[in-house]
Write a structure and sequence with these properties.
Layout: E1 3-11, E2 14-22, E3 29-36, E4 39-45, H1 68-84, H2 87-102, H3 106-120, H4 156-171, H5 174-184
Antiparallel strand pairs: 1-2, 3-4
Length: 187
């Protein structure tokens, strides 16, 4: 199981933080250089054992100012994505999104849970080798998920958002999608 390491830095009364996944919970190295009140450079170096796709340098200046509220939103998104990487967390994120965006309660979520458990076991890396269907909702073709975001291969929240949207547009509710799945083994 991956544990998150958090590095905190207090700067002028505001908390600035980065969250990076790490198998050993080794923290990221974060350095902030402030030359003027509106000019700062943030350099974040991930742990040595992290995924090579992580950025190793972030720079902020007056041209790309980041407000603390924006940093908080980014942090919340990262937390949701990391939670959804595990099936239990993906269920929790999906239930929350289904309720917030579509008004689907626990009955509809039970249908969604049954459907996506049969399709992918809530594994965002699931891929059907015969058809090429991909992700938690088993999108076919998988590139359909790009209407939500181009990070559909690695972001379970993108997959969940697309799957919920697809069900809403095509079937109106998860229970109707499940009924279709039971009749034909696809939805």
């Amino acid at each position: 199981m991956l544990r998150k390491s958090l590095s905190y830095l207090a700067l002028a009364g505001a908390a600035l933080f980065a969250s990076l996944p790490s198998a050993t919970a080794e923290p990221a190295a974060i350095v902030v250089e402030v030359s003027e009140p509106r000019s700062a450079k943030l350099k974040a170096t991930p742990p040595t054992n992290s995924d090579p796709s992580w950025s190793t340098l972030l720079e902020m200046s007056e041209a790309s100012a980041v407000l603390s509220t924006e940093m908080l939103l980014v942090s919340a998104v990262i937390e949701k994505v990391e939670l959804a990487r595990e099936p239990k967390g993906a269920r929790k994120v999906a239930q929350s999104l289904a309720k917030e965006k579509y008004g689907w309660g626990s009955y509809q979520f039970s249908c969604l849970n049954t459907l996506w458990t049969k399709e992918s076991h809530w594994n965002y890396r699931a891929r059907n080798p015969r058809t090429g269907a991909h992700g938690i909702p088993q999108a076919l073709p998988a590139t359909k998920m790009e209407i939500i975001s181009s990070d559909w291969r690695t972001n379970p929240v993108t997959q969940i958002q697309w799957g919920l949207h697809y069900i809403d547009v095509r079937y109106e509710t998860p229970c109707r999608a499940l009924a279709k799945f039971k009749r034909s083994r696809y939805y």
